[in-house]
Design brief:
Layout lengths: L7 H15 L4 H11 L1 H19 L4 E2 L11 H13 L5 E7 L9 H15 L4 E6 L12 H6 L4 H12 L15 E8 L6 H17 L7 E5 L1 H35 L2 H25 L3 E2 L5 H25 L4 H28 L7 H35 L11 H11 L1 H20 L2 E2 L12 H12 L4 E9 L7 H15 L4 E10 L4 E9 L4 H18 L6 E5 L1 H34 L3 H6 L2 H15 L4 E2 L5 H26 L4 H28 L7 H32 L23
Parallel strand pairs: 1-6, 7-12
Antiparallel strand pairs: 2-4, 2-5, 3-4, 8-10, 8-11, 9-10
Length: 755
């Protein structure tokens, strides 16, 4: 046992405890020396890698399809493909909503003729295989059509009778006509699935021009609706967003750096740190055939601001060494040697935050995590290999360090919060309770129409179709059996019972039946038309229908498969929540163990949990006060944010361990650690928050929420690192007089060193 703290035995214990955490040999110092000595070779290698990446970048494709959620061996995807082979794609119905505020509605001769002209113009498009419209609907097996019948009516009484007959026709309301007669739809069936975005975008564009040409006179409102229109509009807005927000993010972060350093070379270094890893990642994705999709489009704004964080710590440490009197090249070498170790820890934790998504069964989530983890590794390689030679040349041209405006401020802040730690804990508890109330009302759910802003014309028209007509989605019941099976009395009765049961369900707007008999099988399709009721409600409806169909088919030779594009998409998105929950717990355990092993301290690992988990919980609860439901895609940021938020904690704790090794008491060591790392932590956290906050301007609502949730979590994590972490250290750290031994070589702050 050590007789007293501060004795020789105690100093040896401190040496053993902190040496691995602070000085992992001279490996990083040697690496920094080698990098600076071979700067031309490294620049040439990175130049070659960039050229190779550009070759992959031109091969990058886009994939915003619903089937991207699944792998090729998924049962749901297999069922959807089998259904499509028989019945055609169920997501190809492009709807033109025709509305009027006139009490006479659309059932006037003049308006029916205008709708017919529109329908026939649409039918001339080569990518449209069929057009269904009210004026072309045959009232009986041999006709006439609704328009032909309207032309034969000369007196008002007959017209009113015909109107009432149409409004009560089971094949008309609500599929083609609203109950009040003020809304109707012209349905254009495309020749292809809208998962094929290329022809979908061009076809929707042509149809939009046709619709605009028939928009006058203005007593009828014409607007596109349905899945093809939603996907085409989303695609166009996504391309526009990336063209705007990626430069905006870089400009915003560049502005933060300029206001901090007032030096162009610092902004340039950070820009290279942000741009090179993203380019290398996108090039790798292009060569490997990984498309840009619904989720990984977030790389364009997320990865650059993450990559800049390590560069900022390198810049801060370099300027700290310059202020201590180090030569420019030595300052960069010293900074790279010290920061390389801490950044390795942050790379591991952030990479694990992303890589934890690899446990997901969904390719879209799994690939998002794995490629993002690769991007984090590329960011680290850029910072430790490419940035030091560039930074060394920059500071040699201008060796003036950035002057500190208010030295000692963060140390004073640390002592203040420690002296008021009871109030800090009470304030934290109050915020947690407040957030907990908000979290109780927040539901994880999404709607396919959430791809667009609520006030987008296509979204508004789709809501009208959902509320007044047959809805924009359908749950498909695919019945199949041996030839002749459908003719059996029990089978016919079961099918009619299914349709009757489905019609009275509150979520079902209409039921459409189709039958086909081939030499190999009898097939019946029941399309249960629904509004965009959300993933949770759609999942419940699917479960209810599945149970009812299974009961009704007892005693028949027919089998049923529930499928359809909405069913596949909703099930995929709903699974994100479960996968993320497992990933979040997994990454928390792994990161905590990793910190404990690498820093050789169970206490430091334990102290890292609360300041990093608490901001995520509070951010989630605060969002609950603003919205009623949170899209599962947006919750991806919670797992990612845990890996990112712990980065700053690692930098603070690593410096705290170094100060403890130098012989400082825990409270004083924490004050010195915050003074040394607090500026970089603040700058990186605010840069990350700003980069994420840019997504709030996206046209894609889930990305908006991802930006809001992520930025809130980053700011709260900064507050926790600067306020809560010192309090925890003050309670958990060892007490006693400061050790009296001299600091070991290399552990003193750079300010104490001279040339």
């Amino acid at each position: 046992m050590c007789p007293a703290e501060g004795s020789t035995c105690e100093r040896r214990r401190l040496d053993r405890r902190y040496t691995v955490a602070v000085h992992p040999g001279s490996a990083f110092d040697r690496l920094a020396r080698e990098v600076l000595a071979r700067s031309r070779t490294i620049l040439a290698v990175f130049g070659l890698l960039v050229l190779i990446a550009l070759g992959g970048l031109v091969q990058t494709t886009l994939d915003f399809s619903s089937t991207s959620f699944y792998g090729g061996d998924d049962r749901d995807l297999h069922d959807l493909r089998a259904f499509t082979e028989q019945w055609g794609a169920d997501d190809r119905e492009l709807t033109v909503l025709v509305s009027t505020d006139d009490s006479a509605g659309v059932l006037t001769l003049e308006r029916l003729e205008r709708i017919e002209h529109l329908a026939r113009a649409l039918a001339e498009d080569p990518e449209i295989v069929e057009v269904v419209a009210l004026p072309l609907l045959e009232l009986g097996p041999l006709g006439p059509t609704v328009l032909e019948h309207a032309r034969t009516l000369s007196d008002p009484g007959s017209a009113r009778a015909a109107r009432d007959e149409i409004l009560h026709h089971p094949m008309v309301v609500p599929l083609l006509l609203s109950a009040d007669g003020r809304h109707t739809v012209v349905v254009a069936r495309l020749a292809h699935s809208t998962d094929d975005l290329g022809p979908t975008v061009s076809t929707v564009g042509r149809i939009e021009r046709i619709v605009d040409a028939h928009a006058e006179p203005s007593d009828l409102s014409l607007q596109l609706a349905g899945l093809p229109a939603i996907r085409a509009a989303f695609f166009g807005l996504t391309i526009r967003d990336q063209a705007v927000f990626v430069p905006l993010t870089l400009l915003l972060v560049g502005g933060v750096l300029w206001s901090t350093y007032r030096r162009f070379d610092c902004v340039l270094v950070a820009g290279i740190a942000a741009g090179v890893p993203l380019l290398l990642l996108l090039g790798t994705m292009g060569w490997m055939g990984e498309p840009i999709g619904l989720l990984n489009q977030a790389y364009f704004t997320l990865l650059p601001v993450i990559a800049i964080a390590d560069a900022i710590h390198l810049l801060e440490r370099t300027h700290e060494a310059l202020r201590g009197g180090a030569r420019p090249r030595d300052a960069v070498r010293e900074a790279a040697g010290h920061v390389g170790w801490a950044c390795l820890l942050t790379t591991l934790t952030t990479g694990l935050g992303f890589a934890s998504l690899a446990v997901s069964a969904m390719p879209i989530l799994r690939n998002f995590g794995l490629f993002a983890a690769l991007g984090i590794v590329l960011s680290y390689a850029t910072v430790v290999l490419l940035i030091p030679p560039i930074l060394a040349r920059a500071v040699e041209r201008d060796p003036r360090p950035r002057e500190l405006r208010a030295p000692g401020g963060l140390a004073a802040w640390c002592r203040l919060v420690v002296s008021r730690r009871g109030w800090v804990v009470l304030a934290t508890a109050a915020v947690v309770v407040f957030a907990g109330v908000g979290a109780r009302t927040l539901e994880i759910d999404n709607r396919l129409s959430d791809l667009l802003q609520p006030d987008h014309p296509v979204a508004r028209a789709s809501r009208v179709v959902d509320a007044e007509l047959g809805g924009i989605l359908a749950l498909e019941v695919d019945l199949h059996g041996a030839p002749g099976t459908r003719d059996a009395p029990a089978t016919r009765a079961a099918i009619e019972a299914m349709a009757s049961w489905a019609r009275v369900q509150p979520e079902v707007r209409a039921v459409v039946q189709e039958h086909v008999s081939t030499r190999d099988a009898d097939r019946t399709r029941l399309s249960l038309r629904t509004a965009d009721i959300g993933g949770a409600a759609f999942g419940r409806l699917r479960a209810e229908v599945e149970a009812e169909v299974a009961d009704l088919l007892v005693g028949t030779d027919m089998r049923a498969t529930l499928t359809g594009t909405p069913a596949v998409a909703y099930r995929g998105i709903n699974r994100i929540t479960d996968d993320l929950r497992s990933a979040l717990v997994g990454v928390l355990v792994i990161v905590t163990v990793l910190i404990g092993v690498l820093l050789r301290s169970v206490r430091l690992a334990a102290m890292s949990i609360v300041p990093n988990v608490l901001p995520l919980v509070v951010a989630y609860g605060l969002v609950g006060w603003m919205v009623t439901h949170l899209d599962p895609l947006a919750t991806v940021i919670l797992t990612v944010a845990l890996g990112i938020a712990v980065d700053d904690t690692i930098h603070v704790l690593a410096r705290y361990a170094r100060e403890r090794e130098a012989g400082h008491e825990p409270r004083d060591a924490m004050a010195r650690a915050l003074e040394a790392t607090g500026r970089a932590v603040t700058i990186t956290s605010l840069a990350l928050a700003a980069g994420l906050l840019v997504n709030c301007g996206s046209s894609f609502p889930p990305l908006q929420m991802l930006g809001m949730l992520g930025a809130t979590a980053m700011v709260l994590a900064l507050v926790a690192d600067l306020g809560l972490l010192p309090v925890m250290v003050s309670w958990s750290g060892p007490r006693g007089p400061r050790p009296t031994r001299a600091s070991p070589p290399g552990s003193e702050p750079p300010a104490a060193r001279r040339r």
